[in-house]
Amino acid sequence: MNHRRQAVRGLAAALAALVALTAAGCSSKAKSGDGKQTGAGGVKTGEGVTDGTISLGALTDMTGVYATLGKSVTQSQQLYVKQVNAAGGICGRKLELTVRDHGYDPQKALAAYTELEPKVVGYTQFIGSPFVAAVKQRVDAQDKGLVLPQAWSASLLGSPYIRVLGATYDVETINAVDFLLKEKGLKAGDRLGHVYFEGDYGENALKGSKYAAGKAGLTVVEQKIKPTDNDMSAQVAALKQAGVKAVVISAGPRQAASLVGVAAATGLRVPVVGNNSAFAPQLLGTQAGPALEKMYWFASPSLPIGADTPTAKKLVAEYRAAYPDDGLDNGIVAGWTAASVFGEALKKACLDKDLTREGVDRALLSLNAHDAGFGMTHDLGDPTAPSSRESVIIQPDKSVPGGMRTVRQPFVSDAAKTYTP
User: Fold this and answer.
1) Domain range spanning residue 69?
2) Residue 305 near residue 315, CB atoms below 8 Å
3) SS3 track for 65-94
4) What angle (nearest 5°) sits at the alpha carbon of residue 227, between those of residues 165 and 101?
5) Whole-structure pTM value
6) Are residues 121 and 227 in the same domain?
7) What's the rounded Cα separation, in Å, for the pair 320 and 317?
């Protein structure tokens, strides 16, 4: 426990110190003028935009706990940029995507944000709720560059510049518990286990499970873990002793695989449901694969990559052609959705003849019915709310493209409808 508390204090201290440094570093910029000018086509421009290019940033994790997700998100966004440029670009300008891998390290994440901030109009991805939350005040007060995070914490709501695409973790977890109640035999009086990462992501999801439990008469049995904890044996033993009838996991794919594999091996044969980032199809090739197919599900803010929609089929074909050695997963969907949302905001800003950061932000807020082709319609007009409260329930299945099949189409549970993030 002492090591855990020290780790939490260390992370918090690192984030606080780095945010202070980055805020100080940008104070001189605020005094030097806004840098706005009128460029080609009579379009106002600012940071990250010239007459020939629109520069975007991607702050990703390709070597840490979400390496699989980060790679897929990034490659799908690079594919989007390539296709847009081949079609002539946006507003007569080519898109440029600069990628920085932070490895889910707070110091690297905030250093990468600071490096790219003067050079880009905004970010098509930023993986890591704690890291996005750490720069939120700076984004709102000074930078004002659009951020579309690959993170779904409710703490990110309220900013006109940081827009959560899909249900937040708390809403998503409420929907996941509804699935357990209606389709997996969980009932009033039962105990529900919840294994979660310490910090913004896991604790926001825990808020959702506690709300759903209160509505349904359940008792939540908590198991807090760190991103560096990969063996879930102790957590499974504790949950088994507590007599849980189902488990929610809000962690990474490795932790989910360990949890399900150990549970199956030790006789804790209860349904396990995860948040959208707690699965990667590559896990089906591990020893935990058979158990994942039998007793694991996860909630997602979109249909899976193997969905039977025109957009999904087209993206699968194009992604396979571009990256023939890589598998399919939902990181591709998340990356493509964010890139397409950013692209639509840029197109609208061009029509408004304002490609400054403020112009792109205003354009995004005018998108109130964006359909990325994966079953969800996103309303981006209210910064205080997620763009959707819907979730899809997906089950691992190695027999289908992408290793995932939909078992419950987009829905919003009654509990999620009345919940305030």
Assistant:
1) 36-167+309-388
2) yes
3) CCHHHHHHHHHHHHHHHHHHHHCCCECCEE
4) 60
5) 0.85
6) no
7) 5
Verify that 160 and 173 share a domain, yes or no.
no
pLDDT of residue 421: 82
Distances from the Cα of 275 to the Cα of 197, 216, 305, 311, 403, angstroms: 11, 20, 16, 24, 16
Q: What residues have CB less than 8 Å from 122, skipping those under 6 apart?
A: 48, 56, 57, 145, 146, 147, 148, 161, 342, 357, 360
* Euclidean distance between CA atoms 258 and 270, whole angstroms: 14
Alpha-helix residue ranges (DSSP H) falling in 106-193: 106-116, 129-138, 169-183
Spans of the chain, pLDDT less than 50? 1-9, 12, 16, 21-33
What is the SS3 assignment for 126?
strand
d(CA 235, CA 248): 12
Q: Tens of pLDDT along 231-259?
A: 999 999 999 999 999 999 999 999 999 99
Residues 294 and 412 both lie in one domain: yes
Distance of alpha carbon 126 from alpha carbon 307, whole angstroms: 25
**Other beta carbons within 10 Å of 398:** 15
Calpha distance 88→83 (Å, rounded): 9
* Tokens found for residue 344: 């639509």
Q: Where are the alpha helices (H) located in 119-252, listed in sequence order?
A: 129-138, 169-183, 200-216, 233-242
Same domain, 49 and 73: yes
Write down the pLDDT at residue 34. Answer: 53
In Å, how far from its chain's centre is CA 262?
A: 27
Q: Is residue 3 part of a domain?
A: no
One-letter amino acid at 2 equals N
- The predicted-structure confidence for 186-221, as pLDDT tens digits, reads as follows 999 999 999 999 988 999 999 999 999 999 999 999
Amino acid identity for residue 80 in this structure: Y
Residues 88 and 154 in one domain: yes
- Per the structure block, which two tokens stand in for 136? 């939120």
Contact (Cβ atoms closer than 8 angstroms) between residue 137 and residue 113:
no
State the helix-helix crossing angle for 200-216 and 169-183, rounded to 10 degrees.
40
Euclidean distance between CA atoms 218 and 206, whole angstroms? 13
Contact 299, 407 (CB under 8 A): no
CA distance 269 to 206: 22
CATH of the domain at 121: 3.40.50.2300
Helix/strand/coil (H/E/C) assignment for every residue in 260-321: HHHHHHHCCCCCEEECCCCCCHHHHHCCCHHHHHHHEEEEECCCCCCCCCHHHHHHHHHHHH
